[in-house]
Amino acid sequence: MSDLITIKFDMPQNEFIHIMVTDPMGKMAFSDIIPEGTTDKELRIGSFPDGIYFVRLINSDKTTFARVKIVKLGQQ
Fold first, then answer.
1. pTM of the full predicted structure?
2. Tens digits of per-residue pLDDT, 15-53?
3. What is the DSSP letter of 32?
4. Which end of the chain, N or C, is more open, meaning fewer C-beta atoms within 10 Å of its C-beta?
5. In the predicted model, is pLDDT for residue 75 greater than 80?
6. Domain of 61, in residue numbers
7. Distance (Å, whole) CA 18 – CA 60
8. What sign has the CA pseudo-torsion 8, 56, 19, 23?
């Protein structure tokens, strides 16, 4: 089982994008700066507990939000 997810986005490619992933309580689970020209980001979720997370992509022109549900199957 893979502990990777891929976040794909369509934002202007001529500048960097700041990606932030938070849990419902606002605790930061992941943060990174994505270089210009990039259209996706692989994220290791192996250490994330199951649950709902909020992904925020920010550049100088706009902010985009998404909700992601992580459920790890087959773990005991």
1. 0.81
2. 899 999 999 999 999 999 999 888 889 999 988 999 999
3. E
4. C
5. no
6. 4-70
7. 10
8. negative
Domain with 38 in it: what CATH number?
2.60.40.3080
CA–CA dist 45, 61 (Å, integer): 28
51 close to 23: Cβ distance less than 8 angstroms: yes
How many other CB atoms are found less than 10 A from the CB of residue 26? Answer: 7
Structure tokens, 61: 């022109």
Sequence-distant (6+) residues with CB within 8 A of 17 are 9, 11, 33, 34, 38, 57, 58, 59
3-state secondary structure of 6: strand
Indicate whether 76 belongs to any domain.
no
Query: Distance between CA 69 and CA 50 in Å, rounded?
Result: 8
